[in-house]
Amino acid sequence: MRLDKFLKVSRLIKRRTLAKEVAEQGRISINGVEAKASTNVKEGDELAVRFGQKIVRVKVDQLKETTRKEEAGEMYTLLGEERIPEN
């Protein structure tokens, strides 16, 4: 599954176009490697997404084409959040 679609379906990012823009800015990495919106995501991959002043790390548990709001959280496990110190 494409990275931008996974982020939308899992509701980590609300819109696919926004997920694409975040990836193009170099703010997403998969297993420590910077990822594009079209990069394939597999179960077991670890994603790091930078939102403003924090980085959210998740592990991909499931891949589903569609999901209900209540089930979206089952697609990943939150590994941690860390704040980026302001310069």
TrEMBL record:
Superkingdom to which the source organism belongs: Bacteria
Domain RNA-binding S4 residues, every copy: 1-64
A Pfam family assignment: S4
Gene: rqcP
Organism: Metabacillus lacus
Protein family per UniProt: Belongs to the RqcP family.
Chloroplast in keyword set: no
GO BP of this protein: rescue of stalled ribosome
Protein's recorded name: RQC P-site tRNA stabilizing factor
Subunit structure, as described in the record: Associates with stalled 50S ribosomal subunits. Binds to RqcH, 23S rRNA and the P-site tRNA. Does not require RqcH for association with 50S subunits.
Sample GO molecular function, one term: tRNA binding
Assigned keywords, A-Z: Protein biosynthesis, RNA-binding, rRNA-binding, tRNA-binding
SMART domains hit by this protein: S4
Gene3D superfamilies with a match to the protein in the record: RNA-binding S4 domain
Family annotation (InterPro entries): RqcP, S4_RNA-bd, S4_RNA-bd_sf
Transmembrane segments: none
Protein role: Key component of the ribosome quality control system (RQC), a ribosome-associated complex that mediates the extraction of incompletely synthesized nascent chains from stalled ribosomes and their subsequent degradation. RqcH recruits Ala-charged tRNA, and with RqcP directs the elongation of stalled nascent chains on 50S ribosomal subunits, leading to non-templated C-terminal alanine extensions (Ala tail). The Ala tail promotes nascent chain degradation. RqcP is associated with the translocation-like movement of the peptidyl-tRNA from the A-site into the P-site.
SUPFAM superfamilies reported for this sequence: Alpha-L RNA-binding motif
rRNA-binding found in the keyword field: yes
